[in-house]
Amino acid sequence: MSATPARRRTLAALAALPLLTLAACGYGSQAQDDNTAELAAGAQKIDGLDSVRIGYFGNLTHATALIGRQQGTFQKELGATKAQYALFNAGPSEIEALNSGSIDIGWIGPSPAINGYTRSGGKSLRIIGGSASGGVKLVVNPKKVRSLKDVRGKKIATPQLGNTQDVAFLNWAAEQGYKIDPQSGKGDVTVVRSDNKVTPDAFRAGSIDGAWVPEPTAAKLVAEGGRVLLDEATLWPGHRFVITNIVVRQGFLKQHPKAVEAVLRASAETNTWINAHPEKAKAAANKQLQADSGKVLPANVLDPAWESLRITDDPLAATLSTEAQHAVTAGLLDKPDLKGIYDLTLLNKVLRAKGESPVDDAGLGVG
């Protein structure tokens, strides 16, 4: 991938950013054994591994990881190999953890996956499965922003420079004709990169006028008096677009395919259960969010947030190229080469074993 000097500076900033946020996300200290599931009698280690380290966010868009952990499904499929977990606020910091070997597999948005893949020359990761579609909204202070045109001149929060929502908002703003420096966030609209945990406080205090954020942060802002100005799903054909994928370190995939298959099997089992038992699944996700953050989501936040999500094994690969183009439009990338970013071999093996149809990589799979 080639880039102009200005974009190379932006990419350098994106590459450096996770190094500044590692302490905040605490992926080393927060990686813990999954003690919610007892090991079955006679359980064996997979691929001789003591543990598999799994990363995810405390967002409902990562419901598969939340519920799979809460119900012990990952641990069950991994046998005597311990499931360990690390929490992140946004994708760039999780990509850094993946690249450094601090985690093996992660639930993550498409934009950080694209950035991580292209910056490494296609050597860092593979997308091996899907998890969710939807669940992202632009929520605003209705007293300050009454229409989409009113976004000009306002302060809009996104979770982190270069994360999926940041790219989506910058792309949307560019399509409206707004000029914004992607690195500083300054321009016709001021982009404020804000941790999802503190964005509701900033909204309440009036230091931001709105936010383009995933669930449940969007619903939290609505509960604080905000109004949904735009549901990102309405910008996509069929209202379907990838918001969460499963990625793996290429070295780990090559060395430990049985462990990767076990995690994918647990993911597919969890997704089937979620779609068959939406109310129980919603409660299970909330229980894990409480375990992770110490706080339970109230019904006026949980219910609308859950309603906007679609849980799926399909990575919706055809939408990934569009999201990559969004990064180009946002000024973060020149057109990237995404050939080989997917390896859906193990996922399709799992799906066939369940009697389900395989999913497509849209021509972006390994050769």
From TrEMBL:
It comes from the Bacteria. PROSITE patterns: PROKAR_LIPOPROTEIN (PS51257). Keywords: Cell inner membrane, Cell membrane, Membrane, Signal, Transport. Transmembrane segments: none annotated. Residues 1-31 form the signal peptide. It is found in: Cell inner membrane; Periplasm. It holds the Pfam family NMT1_2. The keyword Signal applies. PANTHER family: ALIPHATIC SULFONATES-BINDING PROTEIN-RELATED, TAURINE-BINDING PERIPLASMIC PROTEIN. Belongs to the bacterial solute-binding protein SsuA/TauA family. This is Aliphatic sulfonate ABC transporter substrate-binding protein. The lineage of its organism: Bacteria, Bacillati, Actinomycetota, Actinomycetes, Kitasatosporales.
